[in-house]
Amino acid sequence: MNEAIGAIDAIKEVYDFLKKTGTYYLATVENGAPRLRPFGTVDIFGGKLNIQTGLKKPVAKQMLADPRVEICAFDGERWLRLSAKAVLEEDIEAARHMLDAYPELKGMYQPGDGNTAVFSLTEATASFCSFTKPPKTLKF
């Protein structure tokens, strides 16, 4: 079932779900093969859903080379599958906003340090599923 809600409402619903789960799993592509790892950063800035990593990490290099990503998370009752395009966010304020939301990362990352990378998730399709309710699909 597709929900006809606005993009910012869809982004907020996905954000709230990911914050609730705490850890989600981010899949990227490298040389045609999937790469999967646990992640925890998520933020809304400038009307966009964002994640954060270091430019020196393989995950950033993978997203820069092939921006197709998927996220999966489970809250004990429902799971989320999110397919999106990860776009490097050039606005340094996005990095500031992210690090303010995750101050424990400030020992490793600083806005403008040449390593901190915020990626906006665009062209996204989010599907919420469970064994007891029909799926709910949102796009933003």
Give the C-alpha Rg: 15 Å
CATH topology: Pnp Oxidase, Chain A
Instruction: Just name the CATH architecture.
Output: Roll
Shape: globular
| Class by SSE composition | alpha+beta
β content, as a range?
A: 35-45%
Number of strands: 8
- Cα distance, first to last residue? 16 Å
User: What's the helix count?
Assistant: 3
Average pLDDT, all residues: 96
Oligomer: single chain
CATH superfamily: Electron Transport, Fmn-binding Protein, Chain A
Q: What is the share of helical residues?
A: 10-25%
CATH uppermost class: Mainly Beta
* Model regions low in confidence, pLDDT < 50 over at least 5 residues: none
Count the domains.
1
The biggest beta sheet reads: 8 strands, antiparallel
**What is the ordering of alpha helices and beta strands?**
HEEEEHEEHEE
Describe the structure.
The protein is α+β, with helices and mostly antiparallel strands. It has a single domain, classed as Electron Transport, Fmn-binding Protein, Chain A (Pnp Oxidase, Chain A, Roll). Helices cover 24% and strands 42% of the residues. It contains three helices and eight strands, in the order αββββαββαββ. It has helices spanning 7-21, 58-65, 92-101; strands spanning 24-30, 33-39, 43-45, 48-54, 68-74, 79-88, 116-129, 136-139. Strands 1, 2, 3, 4, 5, 6, 7 and 8 form an eight-stranded antiparallel beta sheet that branches.
